[in-house]
Amino acid sequence: MKVLVPVKRVVDYNVKVRVKADGTGVDIANVKMSMNPFDEIAVEEAVRLKEAGIATEVVVVSAGVAACQETLRTALALGADRAVLIDSGDTDLQPLAVAKLIKAVADKEQPQLVVFGKQAIDDDSNQTGQMFAALQGWPQATFASKVVVADGKATVTREVDGGLETLELALPAVVTTDLRLNEPRYATLPNIMKAKKKPLETLKPADLGVDVTPRLKTLKVSEPPKRQAGVMVPDVATLVNKLKNEAKVI
Ligand code: AMP
């Protein structure tokens, strides 16, 4: 069984981003970039399926600028077998365009399982996996916290409001990862070295026959309002008094 894992290069989660002065977006010049954390979880899950003898090959795919190669090499160092880079240059790739690109790759690769992150932490869209599943007409289980693959089916536990839901999906299927699915491993130095020799194919959106023209226009990006400074209160009675009479929340 082949598993396909789409991985996105995003601003590292430790970086505090700044909005550009003209309000057109976030300044990512000279900022540390990393693999989207939910995609690390997706790679880990796919590699564990391979280690368990369930998956035979793990293919990772990333769409974006040429530097996405670094993200793919990281995924290869974590245990993926092969990588596909869809080099779209500076084009702003929106979720529908990415879903179409991944569909084109999936049509070629014929995976039985595609594991997306539940969302990319840059735009927080939470759309690509769902759009891909819809384009393919495949079953999907989003926000997975447990995945068991056996007998041509995936049994997926999902984190839903107030509890857990367990679904059974016929393969081929789409899963999107939640935080508690697993704890990704770190890449070891020998594996980082080995990853340099693993195959990485580069394609352009036109090679896949996909039109990636943006459908959405960003009108404005702005900082959240600054928080007011807090005040120290001497005792519980003062706190209760303030909550009652000033904030009027109790
Ligand atoms: P989003 O819908 O943007 O929140 O992203 C959800 C998931 O789709 C991510 O966790 C990735 O698995 C995948 N994805 C989004 N954008 C890309 C991209 N440019 N290249 C590869 N995978 C992507």
Automatic annotation (TrEMBL):
Q: Does the keyword Electron transport apply?
A: yes
Q: Which Pfam families match?
A: ETF
Q: Which domain of life is it from?
A: Bacteria
Segments forming domain Electron transfer flavoprotein alpha/beta-subunit N-terminal: 23-212
Among the GO biological process terms of this entry, one is: carboxylic acid catabolic process
Name the keywords, alphabetized: Electron transport, Transport
* Family annotation (InterPro entries): ET-Flavoprotein_bsu_CS (IPR000049), ETF_a/b_N (IPR014730), ETF_b (IPR012255), ETF_beta_N (IPR033948)
CDD domains, A to Z: ETF_beta (cd01714)
What the entry lists under SMART domains is as follows: ETF (SM00893)
Q: Give any GO molecular function from the UniProt entry.
A: electron transfer activity
Cofactors that this protein relies on: AMP
Question: What does the sequence similarity comment in the record state about its family?
Answer: Belongs to the ETF beta-subunit/FixA family.
Assembly and interaction partners: Heterodimer of an alpha and a beta subunit.
Q: What does this protein do?
A: The electron transfer flavoprotein serves as a specific electron acceptor for other dehydrogenases. It transfers the electrons to the main respiratory chain via ETF-ubiquinone oxidoreductase (ETF dehydrogenase).
Instruction: Write the protein's name.
Output: Electron transfer flavoprotein subunit beta
Taxonomy-wise, where does this protein's organism fall, top ranks first? Bacteria, Pseudomonadati, Pseudomonadota, Betaproteobacteria, Rhodocyclales
